[in-house]
Design goal:
alpha/beta, 8 strands
């Protein structure tokens, strides 16, 4: 595993809210991508009383080369999970909530109905809350995509993750063009929804491939972008090709904004749902 450079350090801050959030989530029997994906920002997010809820279990039907979430046969989804999340979000005092999931290729709609139900339960429990969902590709199923879009979340995020050339290694069960088309489909179905996506850098992508991915996302209607450093979860995962210096992340942010993205978060520790509320403008859709 590639050794981290000296400048790649993160000071762990565990505020008073950390234990409260951790205990609430544990007692509610809920999962978070913060914990399951070994996110380096978990201490910060929990301390600020935020979390990204992970629905439909903690085992994924896909075995992507970059992801720390366990691969395996998942249990049937909890029919009461949506209400549990709504209650937890209310207890945490959230006015912005992010919902994501493992990929459930075993379900007929990929779990789209569970996203829809969760959005509705949260809105019933917390009127006026802003809801962001980070969705899988649903194998490109247009009806499944419509199910989520019809639930009218404020933001739909689907991470492109990497450039097209690296998909066979990084996301062997996904298809680059399918993910781009998914974003296009959402914008056609519901133009009021803000479209978001993200990339992991340091996997071996070339500058021109980053530029092409930016253009493809923009053409698909995406206007919110996150760029972060890929971190190898274990020695069995895809190795890091290189660490991206913070100055390069800054340059990529400027480039992306110059190309047409309206909001960009770019840095070594940026993740798709990290400080999501700060990246979203409650005063208007984009």
């Amino acid at each position: 595993m590639l050794r981290k450079p000296k400048w790649f350090k993160k000071h762990i801050q565990m505020g008073p809210g950390y234990e409260k959030v951790r205990t609430l989530i544990t007692k509610s029997g809920l999962n978070t991508v913060c914990k399951e994906a070994n996110c380096p920002n978990i201490w910060d997010c929990f301390s600020r009383k935020t979390a990204t809820f992970l629905i439909m279990g903690s085992k994924c039907t896909r075995n992507c080369g970059f992801c720390a979430i366990p691969f395996g046969i998942p249990f049937p989804p909890d029919p009461f999970e949506a209400l549990k999340i709504a209650n937890a979000a209310k207890n945490m005092g959230l006015d912005y909530v992010v919902i994501t999931s493992v990929t459930r290729d075993d379900l007929f709609d990929g779990g789209a109905i569970f996203f829809s139900n969760t959005i509705k339960k949260i809105r019933d429990k917390i009127p006026g809350i802003v809801v962001e969902v980070l969705i899988p590709d649903f194998k490109g199923d247009k009806q499944a995509i419509k199910t989520v879009a019809d639930a009218n979340p404020d933001v739909i995020n689907h991470n492109i993750e990497t450039c097209k050339r690296l998909y066979d290694v990084v996301r062997p069960q996904a298809v680059y063009n399918r993910s781009i088309e998914l974003l296009k489909q959402i914008k056609l179905l519901n133009p009021t929804i803000s479209i978001k996506s993200g990339m992991m850098l340091g996997l071996g992508e070339k500058p021109q491939e980053i530029d092409k991915t930016f253009k493809d996302l923009l053409n698909a209607g995406c206007r919110i972008l996150t760029l972060g450093q890929y971190l190898q979860p274990t020695k069995n995962h895809i190795p890091i090709a290189r660490y991206i210096h913070p100055e390069e992340f800054d340059a990529l942010k400027k480039k992306a904004l110059g190309m047409g993205f309206l909001r960009v978060a770019s840095g070594p520790f940026v993740r798709s749902s990290y400080k999501a509320k700060d990246l979203y403008n409650n005063e208007g859709k984009i």
